[in-house]
Amino acid sequence: MKIELQAYGKVNLGLDVLRRRPDGYHEVKMIMQTVKLHDTLTFETVDEDVIVLSTNADELPVNEDNLVYKACRMLKQEYQITRGIRVFLQKELPVAAGMAGGSADAAAALIGMNKIFDLQIPKHKLMEYGVKLGADVPYCIMKGTALSEGIGEKLTALAPMPDCYILLAKPPIAVSTKMVYENLHANELEKHPDIDGMVMALEEQSLQGITERMENVLETVTEVRYPVIAEIKACMKECGAMNSLMSGSGPTVFGIFTEKEKAEKAADAIRSRKLAKQVFVTQPYNV
User: Fold this and answer.
1) pLDDT tens across 104-146, in order?
2) Residue of 76, 105, 136, 143 marked active site
3) Is 115 a catalytic residue?
């Protein structure tokens, strides 16, 4: 048996860190939005009791260090599945980009295992398995527009994002999420994004109301260290973006456009200025 699934990336329309807890975790309040840019995973059952993972992305591991492998192994063990699985991961989402690409792949692996072996695991239970793999995995199972709270595990579905075009640009730098959070003085932040106002703007289907509230407190760390992030944001706005922002802990920057032509012109400008090679025009993916 063979099935194919898409693993969709995400951006953070707003990202606030409320405080650092005594246990070292950070309490967040953020709005996540799935985008149509995706990886594709192909699953095929085999008779031998194995997990075989392969990918077009040379930089990714294909053993137990990969979240897809871990997801498959988790459900194989949990449900005592003796047949094997072969997975091919066609990577399109940028790697280590603040777009939850690895988490999206893990989410697709859980969904794929559930389908191909007819395990009949309900969605809420799949999300519980997901949280064991990573904080973003339950959201990637849920998809759409959501408010994420706590340490990222409390999810509330929101009104869908209005139609628009989303330009994504990942500069050729690696940003450590651990480094960003360690250098964020969460308890001393003077300004916080208006997340509640953005929730209302989504309910009103006001793209203007959403874009004018776009803010990510993690930029206070990354923009200082990596000026290219601010350069990409400025370029997108110059080219007609309603607003632009870094997604997650970076380094991917996204801009919101009302017209596809403007988004594509901005993409060309980013490439010609050599600010980023990985540049994509996509749209919100709403469930």
Assistant:
1) 999 999 999 999 999 999 999 999 999 999 989 999 999 999 9
2) 136
3) no
| Residue 100 assigned to a binding site | yes
103 labelled as ligand-binding?
yes
Please tell me the distance from the alpha carbon of residue 25 to that of residue 199, in angstroms, as a whole number: 25
The helix (run of H) or strand (run of E) holding residue 13 is: strand 2-20
Write out pLDDT tens, residues 167-196. 999 999 988 888 999 999 888 888 899 999
pTM of the model: 0.95
Rg of the Cα trace of the chain? 19
Residue 98 is labelled as binding a ligand: yes
User: Is residue 268 among the annotated active site residues?
Assistant: no
If DSSP codes are grouped into helix, strand and coil, which group holds residue 264? helix
Long-range contacts of 208-215 (CB under 8 A, 24+ apart): 208/242, 210/13, 210/161, 210/162, 210/256, 211/242, 211/243, 211/256, 212/243, 213/14, 214/13, 214/14, 214/243, 214/244, 214/245, 214/256, 215/14, 215/15, 215/16, 215/191, 215/245
Q: Is 137 annotated as a binding residue?
A: no
